[in-house]
Amino acid sequence: MNVLATIVVVSATILSAARLARCQADQVDSKYLDPNDYFLAGGDQQDRRRILQDAFNRYTVQQQQQEQQQSRTGFDGIFQQRQQQPQQQQGFQRGGRKFTTDEPEQNFETSGRFTSRSDPRTSPIPTPSIQQGPLTLSNSNIRQLLQQLDVAGSQQCNLNVQAQWDFETNVNEGTQIRALEQQLLYSEFQRKVFSIMTRLNLDNVIDPNLRRQLKFLSMPGPAALPQEQLSRYNRLINDMLAVYNSASVCAFDEPLKCGLRLDPDLNIIMSRSRDWNELQHTWIEWRRRTGQKVRDMFEQLVDVSNQAALLNNVSDASEMWKFPYESPSMRFELEDAWEQIKPLYEQLHAYVRKKLRDLYGPERISREAPLPAHILGNMWGQSWENILDLTIPYPGKNYLDVTPQMIKQGYTPAAMFRVAEEFFISLNMSSMPQSFWANSVVEELPGQPIICQPSAWDFCNRQDYRIKMCTQVNMKDFITVHHEMAHVQYFLNYKKQPKVYRDGANPGFHEALSEAISLSVSTPKHLQTLGLILNSVDDIPHNINYLFGLAMDKLTFLPFSLALDLWRWDIFKGTTHKERYNCHWWDLRERLGGVKPPVLRSETDFDPGSKYHVPANIPYI
After folding, report:
1. Is 510 annotated as a binding residue?
2. Of 582, 602, 587, nearest to 298 (Cα)?
3. Which residue of 115, 230, 397, 618 pairs with 225 in a disulfide if CB–CB is 3.0 to 4.6 A?
4. Of 66, 77, 37, which Cα lies nearest the Cα of 186?
5. How far is the CA of 160 from the CAs of 33, 67, 374, 495, in angstroms?
6. Stretch among 103-112, 263-272, 316-325 having the lowest mean pLDDT
7. Is position 11 within any domain?
8. What is d(CA 39, CA 233) in angstroms, rounded to the nearest whole number?
9. What's residue 178's pLDDT?
10. Which residue among 536, 551, 577 closes a domain?
11. Are residues 276 and 331 in the same domain?
């Protein structure tokens, strides 16, 4: 019972630490998608992200191949290089006195136009035109430049997000093409901004706020690559995803029954089967059909990613990925946080190992050995919630579900959103703007294909915020509604910032806030306040089962997510060479999570490549 008591005492630690990962994309509760970085988000079982990531890579490669054969004129008007006329030195008023500037004020013309090719009705977007050569500007000049880039960036972002919204709420070939074209336009805009940033001399920029904005604008990621290399980068990712998305295996007990796909076939087997041999067969075959086939392409992608990092003025791609966290000691901080949580994880691990040894026998699971990865209820052993039926401390004492009471009281999707709004108002936060209610999609639209993955949207204009969700009347969606509206509350609170700051404090912060709200809303006390619980079930067995279920999902995820990115960081840095790719992966999995492969592995295998985020080249933390 020690592990159970410990879970009760430190449950708050579990829940806060569980958001160490940037986005637990394999959970359907992980909803927040950053519209400003739309195609860099991704996750298993999220059709929205996969469809667009794959399509965008294909579309980008096709466009760039065409551009190599014929010149494009769509962007000729952007950032045209115009020689500025010298101006007479002039003064400006400050505090009733006249000061003389150290250098002339420079006017940044806004005659450049950035127009969407996909919609001729789109209003032109002004973008600054800067003279060629190195730029040494005063702080006031730079402030003026940033203001104009803020306007242009916000408008182009708005067009991009609107195109993505149109596609997701009405999936068809036309809306998909427009979404892809608008994303290409936005990427081109970012490249043009980067070209300006690389020419700026920052030696005399003393305002820390200006320096920070310039720093973020100077980090476009892979978009900094020359066109030929960017095409190669996208093509490698696209080819690896083609392998991943088309992979299928044959059934264990029916060799002629082939074509089993990851979702839903293999996921069902891994979550429900308790047959050791069937699970082992499925585990091995999925990796043979995915990881082994993408290894060579991954090696090439590492080289191209590191080239992009150098163009972003960092040493390697791991530094480029860690840049948004603004912490030079991020790796140490992550590993230190894990060491604090690890004692609890080790107790949970020992308890689960005992339960599984009782089922499979001591000849297969030793008293002190790592757990075999294939029997944990998940293809990657990253979440153990699917084996709760084997491990639950108090069978039959299920934690509460208020769905029947919601249906009895006549809840509707619209009513669920209004209740969520009242929750935030009670915390002295803002009500939702009228445009939110007019433009959000909170139910599946009849006869109109829609990507139902719940998501919160910031349209980059400080006015338009929406949620897209195919809401069902049940407790799970009731909590999700609050989760998504928490994202919108965060949007509203930073809407007055420049666009470069209109984002989470770091890539994991949005989810951390929304998860905190979700946990608060799901407590029996709050549900009782809403009249959804008539008789409290606040007893030890129910509470233990509830907290144990959270630990089997969130706590077990931490060592996997940490291992996946530590492994890639080591490869990017060159401390792990290709001769040890697979060996290093299992070293990390065993050291951090106490998990081992079910059979002997070698360097002909490439087991990390069986996880979507590796071929998609998406950070996991």
Report:
1. no
2. 582
3. 230
4. 37
5. 14, 22, 41, 18
6. 103-112
7. no
8. 14
9. 92
10. 536
11. yes
Catalytic residue, from 181, 285, 484, 515: name it.
484
Phi and psi of 200, rounded to 5°?
-80, 135
Co-location of 252 and 388 in the same domain: yes
Is the pLDDT at 442 greater than 90, yes or no?
A: yes
The verdict on 155 and 166 lying in the same domain is: yes
pLDDT for res 289: 97
Residues 376 and 430 in one domain: no
Give the confidence band of 245 by pLDDT, cuts at 50, 70, 90. confident
Q: What is the pLDDT of residue 216?
A: 92
Answer yes or no: are the C-beta atoms of 490 and 193 closer than 8 Å: no
Cβ atoms of 598 and 280 closer than 8 Å: yes
Indicate the residue type of 469: M
- Domain-embedded: residue 111: no
Residue 511, annotated as binding a ligand:
yes
Cβ(244)–Cβ(612) below 8 Å: yes
What's the helix, strand, coil split of the chain in %, to 5? 55, 5, 40
At 245, the amino acid letter reads: N
181 noted as active-site residue:
no
- Enumerate residues 6+ apart whose C-beta is below 8 A from 188: 75, 78
Q: Of the candidates 157, 147, 159, 304, which has an alpha carbon nearest to the alpha carbon of residue 225?
A: 304
* Residue 505, burial from CB neighbour count under 10 angstroms (0-12, 13-18, 19+): middle
Tell me if 352 sits within 8 A of 344, measured CB to CB. Answer: no
Both 307 and 379 in one domain: the answer is: yes
Active site residue 613: yes
Range of the domain at 164: 139-219
Helices (H), 365-508: 388-391, 403-408, 413-426, 434-439, 475-493
In the predicted model, is pLDDT for residue 70 greater than 50?
no
405 neighbors 534 (Cβ within 8 angstroms): yes
362 and 311 together in one domain: yes
Q: Which of 536, 555, 575 is the last residue of a domain?
A: 536
Q: Which residues contact 254 (CB under 8 A, 6 or more apart)?
A: none
In a domain, 17, yes or no: no
Domain match, 243 and 381 both: yes
With bands split at pLDDT 50, 70 and 90, how would you rate the model's confidence at 24? very low
- Quick one: tokens of 413? 């999707």
Predicted confidence at residue 91, as pLDDT, reads 28
Which residue, 180, 295, 304, is CA-closest to 234?
A: 304
Does 348 score more than 70 pLDDT? yes
The active-site residue, picked from 281, 374, 584, 613, is 613
Give the phi and the psi of residue 465 in degrees, each rounded to 5: -130, 135
The predicted-structure confidence for 360-392, as pLDDT tens digits, reads as follows 999 999 998 999 999 999 999 999 999 999 999
| 483 annotated as belonging to a binding site for a ligand | yes
Is 319 annotated as belonging to a binding site?
Answer: no
Q: Could you give the number of structural domains in the chain?
A: 3
Query: Cα separation of 232 and 436, whole Å?
Result: 40
Q: Report the C-alpha gap between 313 and 318 in whole angstroms.
A: 12
Sign of the torsion formed by the C-alpha atoms of 64, 66, 71 and 74? negative
Asked if residue 488 and residue 414 are part of one domain, the reply reads yes
Is residue 580, in this structure, part of any structural domain at all? yes
Q: For residues 117 and 180, give the distance between their C-alpha atoms in angstroms, rounded to a whole number.
A: 11
Whether the pLDDT of residue 536 is over 80: the answer is no
Tokens describing residue 29: 């509760």
